[in-house]
Amino acid sequence: MLKHVQLSPFRTRADTLSLSSTASYSSLSPEPLSSRSSSYSSLSESSPSTTIKVYARCLRPDIEYKTLSITFQTTCREVVTSLLNKYRMRHRDPNLFYLTMEVTVRKAGVRTVLVLDEDARPAVLQSCHPRGDSRFSLQMRHGGLVKIYDSVLMSGSQYKSLLISDRTTVDELIQILLSCYNSKERVEQFSLYEVCRSQEYQRKLHPDDCPLNVQHCWSSSNEFHFLIRRNLDFRPRRKGPWTPELPSIPSTSRQNESATPQQSSLERETQNKSSSSSSSSTSYADYENYFYI
Predict the structure, then answer these.
(1) Residue (of 191, 202, 205) closest to 234 by Cα position
(2) What angle do CA 208, 166, 197 make, to 5 degrees?
(3) What are 46-63's pLDDT values in tens digits?
(4) Distance between CA 115 and CA 207 in Å, rounded?
(5) Could you tell me the pTM of the whole model?
(6) pLDDT digits (tens, 9 = 90+) for 163-173
(7) Residue 226 near residue 146 (C-beta atoms within 8 A)
(8) Residues 118/76, Cβ–Cβ less than 8 Å
C-alpha cells in the first residue's frame, strides 16, 4: 500500500551544512541549521521540489554525502551532472557514474539495491517509500585512460589524459576537453583523429564513434594516439528555415468572360485568339529559363 507523502515547507531551505553530519531531515526547523548538517544546493527553482541525499564517496574520500534540492522531473543524469559541477570536476566523464537506490523493508528485514536508469526520477521513487527506507548512492563504472593531443585548444598543452567510459562518444569527449579549458567554442568546430606513427596516416573519427573502443583495437599504444583538430570548413548553422531566393514567376490575367450584349461574337472570337497567342508566347519565353527539381 502506498502512503500519502506530504512535503514539508521547510525542505526547500537553502542552508549550508557540513558533509559529515548524520542528522535526519525529519528534525528540520525554521531556525538556521547548524554547520554540522549536510550541504544543501538547488538543481531547479521550479516547484514543487524535494530533497534527496546522495552518498558520493566515490568522488572523493572526504565526501560522505551531498543533499540536493530537486524537482519531481529531475532525472538521474541531471543529478550526476550536478554533483560533478558542484565539486568542479570538469575533467570527469559523466558516463562513468550512475545512481543506485537501496530500499529497505523493515518488517521483513529485506534490503534491495536497484540500479537506476539515466531517465529515472529519484524524487518520484523516493516518494513511494517511507522516509528513511530508501537511500541513493553514486557508483562508478570501469573505464579506460585515453591520451589526446590538444594543443589546438591550449597552445601550451601537449596532451591531456582522461578517464572515460566505453560508451563515451567523440563529441562527448570533445565537450569534456572544452569544459576543462572553460572554452565557449562549439563541439562541431573540432574533430578527433586516430594517428598512427609507423604507418604515417591519420583517420578522422565519426562523431558517434567511441574512442575507448577504437583504442582497444590498437596493436600497440606507442604507435597510435588521438589528435584533436579544428574544422577549417566549419560554418555556423543558419537560424530559421532556409528559403531559396527565386524570382517570382509572371502570371497572366484571365480573359474577361462577361461581354457586353453589343459586342458581336466575331469580335469576341478575334479578341480571344489574339490574347491566347500573346499569352502562350510570353509564357513560353518566361518558363524556358527556369530549372525544375
Answers:
(1) 191
(2) 75
(3) 568 999 999 999 999 999
(4) 28
(5) 0.63
(6) 999 999 999 99
(7) yes
(8) yes
